[in-house]
Amino acid sequence: MNETFTIAVDGPAAAGKGTISKALAAHFDLPHLDTGLLYRAVGALTLTGTDPVTAARSLTADDLGRDNLRTPEVAQAASKVAVIADVRAALVDFQRAFARRIGGAVLDGRDIGTVICPNAKAKLFVTASPGVRAERRYLELTGKGLDITREQVLADVVARDDRDMNRAEAPLKPAPDAVLIDTSEMNINDAVTAAIRTVETKTQASR
């Protein structure tokens, strides 16, 4: 990897982008940032009554370490605060600074390749059908002991997709030069292999 090699991984909820991003970071020995965690932390704070813009501007490492950031309630709150322009603006500088780390970095989210790192050397858009993603999220949540139905999870996934794709600020969409990886019928090993091959191709092309 050269000093400016940034890997941008975007996609909807439960498509596998987080797992793929972590695997890419491990494979290429790069730091990884789950940018969705920033919005989840802001969303969690709003559930306690904090103003979303205030929460975004005062976010701390302790906020990112909260135990409840993976709950459905926080996921929905994160999607709602993500449409607020001032919230996004408050978090952009942090994300871009992380992306500029010497040696490169891997960032995953919903607008990395389009807004945060439009000049990233490698861009992936990881997706899967809503039904597949809902089933994955259902198994994840029930595995943690949450009492929730498949119908509820699917409704949450569809609602979040609609909000993310149709927001005015940085809507979820593939960058024009992103490589699409549809994991609907792929196991995680195959998806990771496809992602690594894509990045390696981009690495060679940038030399």
Give me a quick take on this structure:
This protein has 207 residues and is of the alpha/beta class.
Reconstruct the topology from this structure:
Elements: E1 6-10, H1 17-28, E2 32-34, H2 35-46, H3 52-57, H4 61-64, H5 72-81, H6 85-99, E3 105-109, H7 112-116, E4 122-127, H8 130-143, H9 150-166, E5 179-182, H10 188-205
Helix pairs in contact: 1-10, 2-5, 5-9, 8-9
Keywords:
single chain, 207 residues, alpha/beta, Rossmann fold, 5-stranded parallel β-sheet, 10 helices, globular
Description:
It is a single chain. α1 packs across α10, α2 packs across α5 and α8 crosses α9. This protein has one domain: 3-Layer(aba) Sandwich (Rossmann fold). The protein is of the alpha/beta class and 207 residues long. The termini are close together. It is globular. The mean pLDDT is 93.
Strand content: 5-15%
Number of strands: 5
Just give the CATH class: Alpha Beta
User: Helix count, per DSSP?
Assistant: 10
Strand order of the largest sheet: 2-3-1-4-5
